Amino acid sequence: MSTDSHLHELVELQEQVRARYAEAARSVTAGGANPLAMVTSGCCTPTQAATEHTDQHTDQQAGGEAGCGESCCTAGGSGVVDEAFGAGLYGTQEQGEVPAEALAASLGCGNPTAVAALHEGERVLDLGSGGGIDVLLSARRVGTTGFAYGVDMTQEMLDLAEANRAKAGATNVQFLKGTIEDVPLPDGAVDVVISNCVVNLSTDKPAVLAEMFRVLTPGGRIGISDVVAEDHLTPADRAQRGSYVGCIAGALTRTEYLDGLTEVGFVEATVDFTHEAAPGMHSAIVRATKPLTTPTEHGTEPHPGFVAGLVTGPTA
Asked: Tens digits of per-residue pLDDT, 15-43?
């Protein structure tokens, strides 16, 4: 494949992701169909469709994650959603802390606010913030002395998130339009980066991991939920199990994730599988820390920008 053809394919994939999630946001806003089904409808390949009709058990296993909430291949193409995903991953108390529309728009494969163990006064960034559920929950956890940002490339999701912010009365929240490969925040702007089943959708994952590292203050951490493949699965194997838009085909393996985090500078990186999304593919908790110092040829030195008071409070 030529370079131009490859770039064109990547652009097309990004547009497919944007279009699907825009459709999901419109569905929530209109009070229509389940957004999980909206994201994944019609995305099965012929091979996947054939597998559905011949292997009911595999279909049920795959029904967990694609579209960050269900398999691309739901039974009979019905769009039935497994209640173990999306809003079902939040506890009763958490569900009561956010507007119904934020809960309805949950398309995730985990609960990153719980994974990140947020504290009062921290600044948090949610990559691919969607309808805003994790940003709003984060804002409550960090309190009035903290701040929560959300970044999303889909205007319809940003509009929905802003409406949910207003309904929740959250004043320590800001939603920003941008991509997770080029976050519109300065270096060292936040203490924690979270994300919920979005990194796998990126067509430039090294850029995403580098941006996480860049926007974190030294000593900051990531706590994200994502779909991750077992190491023995090739890219072709992953593509057979689900679509790219469905959060399956684009997933990294565990080793690819760990190597990528280490490459950009993170330490103490871990990837822990939680439950199966498709054969050999799992929802996973990904954690890592940005060191207080960075290595140099003469040892270590404080990370650039790590000056007391350099980044204080929310950034406009």
From this structure: 777 777 777 767 777 775 555 554 444 44
Domains, the chain, in order of start with CATH, read: 3-296 (3.40.50.150)
CA distances (Å), origin 258, targets 30, 67, 104, 214, 294: 40, 23, 32, 17, 18
**What single-letter DSSP state applies at residue 65?**
T
**Cβ(44)–Cβ(53) under 8 Å?**
no
Closest CA to 202 of 212, 217, 192: 212
pTM: 0.74
DSSP string, 180-196: TTB-SS-TT-EEEEEEE
What is the distance between the alpha carbons of residues 21 and 15, in angstroms, rounded to a whole number? 10
Chain segment 168-206, per-residue pLDDT in tens: 999 999 999 999 999 999 999 999 999 998 999 999 999
